[in-house]
Amino acid sequence: MKSFKINVFYDNFKQEVLWGKNLYTYLFDLYKDKARYCVMFISKYYKEKLWASHERKAIQERIFTEFDSEYLLPVRLDDTTIDGVGKTIGYVENKTAEELAYMIAKKLDKDLDINIMLYNLRKMLGADYKINLEDGNVCFVNEIEQFEAQYPASILLEMNKLGLLEQMFVGPAIVPN
To answer: What domain range includes position 157?
Structure first.
């Protein structure tokens, strides 16, 4: 999650913040009112934890008041069922940590793929190129070389997924206009 620059609350990462606080009220408020999303890792171990039960109460209260929200993002690690987490809530399972981190990042930023691609293009082509997204096209401007071009973002996204952007822009000496 750090590579996506996403702020994550995990109690072991925040010991200095939690030190001395009334955790019962602090955590309830955090889960009920402050978190944008809550990723719940559902397992038999989670179900047995006392603090997880307290966490679930806050999560369920929020879900009850924000019925159609996508606040709870369950990740099933086994076949355990959790009271209050209905079968109608979409969940994921069998994901690697990297896949899950990407899915969470994508949930937070619908334009994540395009932002990653733009970042990669800027890094690859250097500071002389101004690269922006305008009306569904990726626009390239290099005033030093007196160069301007634009390509449909959808095509460049597919090229990026296939790992072909570098071959398209850095490999050839000429970029078609």
So the answer is: 112-169
Q: Binning pLDDT at 50, 70 and 90, where does residue 171 land?
A: low
Residue 41 forms beta bridges with which residues?
Answer: 75
CB 76 within 8 Å of CB 47: no
Assigned domain for 137 exists? yes
Tell me the CA distances in angstroms from 20 to 8, 26, 54, 73, 81, one per residue in order: 21, 11, 19, 29, 33
Question: Is 66:60 a contact under the CB 8 Å cutoff?
Answer: no
d(CA 150, CA 137): 6
80 vs 70: CA distance, rounded Å: 21
pLDDT digits (tens, 9 = 90+) for 137-157: 899 999 998 889 999 988 888
Number of domains in the chain: 2
pTM attached to this predicted model: 0.67
121 and 99, same domain (yes or no):
no
pLDDT computed for residue 91 by the predictor: 93
Q: What angle do CA 12, 18, 19 make, to 5 degrees?
A: 105
Please say if the pLDDT value at position 167 is more than 60. Answer: yes
